[in-house]
Amino acid sequence: MKRIQLLFLPFLALGAEDFMSNYEYGQMLYNNPRGISCAKCHGEKGEGKFIGQYYKKDKKLKKIVLQEIHGARINDKTLKQIQDSVSKTHDVMPTYSLTDEETKAIYEYLQKIKNKS
Ligand code: HEC
Q1: pLDDT at 49 over 90
Q2: CA 70–ligand 1 middle distance (angstroms)
Q3: What's the rounded Cα separation, in Å, for the pair 50 and 109?
């Protein structure tokens, strides 16, 4: 019995390399890049999402107003737009240091998933 298991080991190791497809790689990155999910703020398919609201003092109006925060729709952005945005400093969105390859995987994932129901 032991012997048979050992025989299969090399095949298992070979299979592991192709274990993750590009799609799964992009999916993993989109849902958990550096521990902070794009999906939490931009929706499961990058369709955009309401994140939350808070009260703030409007200096011009001199009263308390309700401020809403929305994650923009991002599945219609170009790769360049996504690259620019993830490396920039925002008010709400974290700055990610993703490699070009990682950003591309996220972009391609969004292109594939956006029309899925
Ligand atoms: C904490 C919430 C949050 C997370 C997490 C987040 N974003 Fe954002 N993102 C925002 C908000 C809010 C904006 C609008 C600009 C702003 O105020 O920061 C934005 C803007 C963008 C834009 C520009 C949209 C436009 O209209 O031009 C892109 C592209 C983008 N995000 C992509 C991503 C990607 C890719 C990830 C994951 C790697 C991500 N974001 C993670 C909240 C988030």
Answers
A1: yes
A2: 9
A3: 21
